[in-house]
Amino acid sequence: MEKKRVSDEFEPGPLPPTRPLDRFGFVKQEQSFSPEGLTKSRSAYEREREERRVRKWRKMIGVGGSDWKHYVRRKPHVVKRRIRKGIPDCLRGLVWQLISGSRDLLLMNPGVYEQLVIYETSASELDIIRDISRTFPSHVFFQQRHGPGQRSLYNVLKAYSVYDRDVGYVQGMGFLAGLLLLYMSEEDAFWLLVALLKGAVHAPMEGLYQVGLPLVQQYLSQFEQLVKENLPKLGDHFLREMINPSMYASQWFITVFSYSFPFHLALRIWDVFLYEGVKIVFKVGLALLRYCEDDLIKLPFEKLIHALRNFPEDAMNPDTLLPMAYSVKVSRRLQVLKQEYEKRDNESPHASESSEKQVQTVTLKPHNLRR
């Protein structure tokens, strides 16, 4: 007998009031008062530049991505450079699927997503429904209660919680799925989520959401050591003020900056993240602390915590922050720190209990979102 989707039992709520939106679909926080002529001139230049970039990318990926793998094999450095400059927004959904390996997963599993959504049940269904309105609450696609966006988000998260019952559903997963749904269909978003958590191309991310959040603890331990090594003055200040990364960086890793970063910056980070892996999260985090270091080392505990959760607008400029991040070298050191962490963890399995409790207190609240 066919199972009903839980969300089908709810009627969509009223449409939210019409408010000005930015180019990504988020409600504008402030009105821009740029002179009309300047705005037109700048937008015309940006359109022309974007059209040139799109033509290059279309030639590189081929029709429907048919040339992608061949181009990557022939010119990997060109691909890396162009991805770091930012994938054209109109091609982002397709390119994300190509570089993550999710397109191959979808083609190898026809009908599986529909089966998971329609015919299976999940122990997490009520938790998912409860959290849906907290995911990108200022984006027009997700604002209508039980509307198309919220239903799609529910379907993807429910399907994954059935597909991988060991992980099930954890709140931060909604921001990954929500981001993907803004650029692709439900089924495509589901398989990209699978590719990320199961490690189709890079290291699996499922440890970010498993019981005890083991991968979050590892990443925070690595990041703390990298701060001490790369920013010793700031590391000493954090030590004096008893600041550790679990107080400010947990959601960086759990949501790959999709939770509280400006959306245009989060997208640029995701472009690189899907191609190069989680090291970009460490690089961006270190670059952000380096950019703000002179101000941070002057702050006492409470003001420091606030500053680490509310970085200034100029620090969030992709054209400033990302080149700084790319210059940070962490790959080899991350591997060494991972081995040291695993050795400590094996020798003292209860040593990380306090940090585990700290990490698990991270709550993603809508009022903390800055768009």
UniProtKB/TrEMBL annotation:
Domain of life (superkingdom): Eukaryota
Protein name, as recorded: Uncharacterized protein
Organism: Persea americana (Avocado)
